[in-house]
């Protein structure tokens, strides 16, 4: 038997799980970007390794976010365009950044991290809007 209120509650819960995973990814990307700034300003090999470790953390969080978004999407058709979330840095740029450790490589990687953070922020706003609509529908 179909229960609209239950379906809405399930969709809201799935949206909150997606938001939690996206927030974790955003935090990891922010940390990577901070380490990236240190790297640009004269960090060394260890700074680059830490930065790429934080990017790895972000990618793990984004994998969880993609799974949560897929479940949310199954509950709600309004969420589109977030399946391709990734914080991947071009492998050549990552190698160049660590192996050569110069400011030019650091700037390329910083740009890729900023772009990924922007995509995550957009996904967060999209999910928040969808959850708000669900909460409004639940009250109606």
Rg (CA only): 18 Å
Count the E strands.
0
Largest sheet: none
Helix and strand pattern = HHHH
Number of discrete helical segments: 4
Percent range for β-strand residues: under 5%
The SS-based structural class is mainly alpha
Span between termini: 21 Å
- The overall average pLDDT, rounded, is 78
Percent in helix: over 70%
Runs in which pLDDT lies below 50 for 5 or more consecutive residues are 78-87
Overall 3D form: elongated
Explain the overall architecture.
- The protein has 140 residues and is an all-alpha fold.
- Helices cover 82% and strands 0% of the residues.
- The protein has four helices and no strands.
- It has helices at 4-40, 45-75, 91-100, 103-139.
- Helix 1 runs antiparallel to helix 2 and helix 2 runs antiparallel to helix 3.
- The protein starts with a helix and ends with a helix.
Q: Which keywords apply here?
A:
140 residues, mainly alpha
In short:
The chain has 140 residues and is mainly α. The protein has four helices and no strands. It has helices spanning 4-40, 45-75, 91-100, 103-139.
Outline the secondary-structure elements.
Layout: H1 4-40, H2 45-75, H3 91-100, H4 103-139
